[in-house]
């Protein structure tokens, strides 16, 4: 163990802290975390942990969600600039306007949204449970879904539901192209193509499976195949290799790197623990309304 890893371990125990890391984090962050998972898993962990402090190695909306679910805990984000461009592609004003036009609609927000948008929503969902959340809404109900138009289109296709979509997308996942995947398929003809539903619809159409990051981990472990072309942020490949050392993984694009996820470094993680920074807060009136949408999501799964 390096000195910095040792220091993190010591201070974490002293402060009764837990380190949660998203599947897209750097390998050294994943390796030192108490728990690595997707947004849904991490929300559940944040809601149930007995720790006093949660250090969230991910992006801002994830730390906000942890604060909403655990208002009495200290939630730390090691780099306050670790945001999510997709989450910033929808505003609370846009949702309020859509609600005024479609007053009978149910509002479903992807977890990649600011707390203010969640507070105007009936349900949250993640890529792991979006299909189940939408399917749980009574047939015939109009649905407003934001911000990811590609995840929204995928859910429409799978469920046949009529949804009003906003215009958000993940810039990182747009580096994955049909051409790139077909080139890799020429080289690795036996490889199974797994992609995230934040990819564009053409990419999803040629994939063998469309899965959340945790869904990918389970799929790969259960699969008899030995080679996979992986269409999501390349941080996931560290976990896939660790859990399946005998299998081969090829990123669908080497450029699929989320610059925001990569802002979290091991040095910043140590600093966050030493300085109790940056503390993420959500005003209680917003948190109370947002909590209902998140808890409804957790109840569906
Ligand atoms: S990978 Fe995309 S959706 Fe995820 S945090 Fe980065 S920009 Fe946001």
Search tags:
binds iron/sulfur cluster, four-stranded parallel sheet, 3 domains, Rossmann fold, alpha/beta, 16% strand, 301 residues
Describe the structure.
Pathway: Cofactor biosynthesis; NAD(+) biosynthesis; quinolinate from iminoaspartate: step 1/1. Catalyzes the condensation of iminoaspartate with dihydroxyacetone phosphate to form quinolinate. Keywords: 4Fe-4S, Cytoplasm, Iron, Iron-sulfur, Metal-binding, Pyridine nucleotide biosynthesis, Transferase. The structure is a single chain. The chain has 3 domains: about 100 residues, Rossmann fold (3-Layer(aba) Sandwich), CATH 3.40.50.10800; about 100 residues, NadA-like (Rossmann fold, 3-Layer(aba) Sandwich), CATH 3.40.50.10800; about 80 residues, NadA-like (Rossmann fold). Helices cover about 45% and strands about 15% of the residues. It has 14 helices and 12 strands. The strands form 3 sheets. It has a 4-stranded parallel β-sheet with strand order 2-1-3-4, sandwiched between helices. It has a 4-stranded parallel β-sheet with strand order 6-5-7-8, sandwiched between helices. Strands 10-9-11-12 form a 4-stranded parallel β-sheet, sandwiched between helices. The chain is globular. Bound molecules: iron/sulfur cluster (SF4). The site of iron/sulfur cluster (SF4) has 13 residues, from loops.
